[in-house]
């Protein structure tokens, strides 16, 4: 565990000295509001902040419905985001999506998963810029691995590693950080009260469609679920 934390910090420190990078932190909280017969609905809220520009922030709120059948999952969801900064045209983004996923159990502690989603992204600006929208398919693969668990007190440490590809044919006005791929690594602590807390790192590779001097984004993630 200590070695993993050291490697993540070393990676962030190494990239921090490179001029072509942006650095963020993102906080999120989520909860399951409904569950019945492998069908459940979740609700989550998030806040993302750019370190190098104190005024740049993004608030998000979303919901997702999932039905699981024999390892397959069928997903529909909706999210809204508000991005603001005094030097840009603030904008609201609406993001409905549908998708399908498959979990494959490799062993008692290891699960491989893959997800294919398509989302419609609609942008509404505060200034004189016209509304814009486009479709964006995305594909994610990853693993969930139980690092350590205690059956007596119902607690465990888990590792999640992911890679996600975004198939961008277009980008919207003011969309500075549209990614083409991201790599994520997260440690999750399942608590005995049924809640969980996660700490992670994500490397975003920005789309070549962007007119942006920065090529990568580095995000420190803190998540809480109940």
Provide tags for this entry:
226 residues; 11 strands; single chain; mainly beta; 1 helix; Porin; 7% helix
Task: Chart the SSEs and their pairings.
Elements: H1 2-16, E1 21-36, E2 39-50, E3 57-69, E4 72-84, E5 91-105, E6 110-125, E7 132-150, E8 155-166, E9 179-190, E10 196-206, E11 216-225
Parallel strand pairs: 1-11
Antiparallel strand pairs: 1-2, 2-3, 3-4, 4-5, 5-6, 6-7, 7-8, 8-9, 9-10, 10-11
Query: Averaging pLDDT over every residue, what do you get?
Result: 89
Order of helices and strands: HEEEEEEEEEEE
Biggest beta sheet attributes: 11 strands, mixed, barrel
**Which structural class should the secondary elements be placed in?**
mainly beta
CATH structural fold name? Porin
Number of domains: 1
How would you describe the overall organization of this protein?
With 226 residues, this protein is mainly β. It has one domain (2-225): Beta Barrel (Porin), CATH 2.40.160.20. 7% of the residues lie in helices and 66% in strands. It has one helix and eleven strands. It has one helix spanning 2-16; strands at residues 21-36, 39-50, 57-69, 72-84, 91-105, 110-125, 132-150, 155-166, 179-190, 196-206, 216-225. The longest helix is centred in the N-terminal third of the chain and has 15 residues, at 2-16.
In short:
With 226 residues, this protein is mainly beta.
């Amino acid at each position: 565990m200590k070695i993993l934390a050291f490697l993540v910090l070393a990676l962030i420190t190494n990239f921090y000295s490179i001029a072509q990078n942006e650095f963020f932190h993102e906080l999120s909280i989520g909860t399951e509001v409904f569950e019945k017969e492998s069908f459940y609905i979740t609700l989550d809220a998030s806040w993302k902040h750019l370190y190098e520009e104190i005024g740049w922030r993004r608030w998000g709120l979303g919901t997702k419905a999932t039905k699981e059948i024999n390892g397959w999952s069928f997903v529909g969801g909706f999210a809204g985001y508000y991005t603001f900064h005094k030097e840009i045209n603030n904008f609201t983004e609406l993001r409905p999506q549908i998708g399908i996923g498959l979990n494959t159990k490799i062993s008692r502690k290891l699960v491989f998963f893959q997800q294919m989603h398509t989302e419609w992204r609609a942008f509404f600006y505060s200034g004189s810029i016209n509304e814009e929208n486009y479709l964006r398919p995305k594909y994610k693969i990853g693993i969930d691995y139980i690092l350590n668990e205690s059956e007596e007190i119902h607690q465990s440490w888990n590792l999640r590693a992911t890679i996600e590809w975004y198939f961008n044919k277009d980008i919207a006005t003011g969309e500075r950080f549209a990614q083409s791929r991201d790599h994520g690594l997260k440690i999750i602590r399942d608590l005995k009260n049924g809640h969980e807390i996660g700490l992670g790192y994500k490397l975003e590779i920005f789309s070549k469609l962007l007119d942006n001097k920065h090529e990568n984004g580095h995000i420190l993630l803190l998540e809480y679920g109940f």
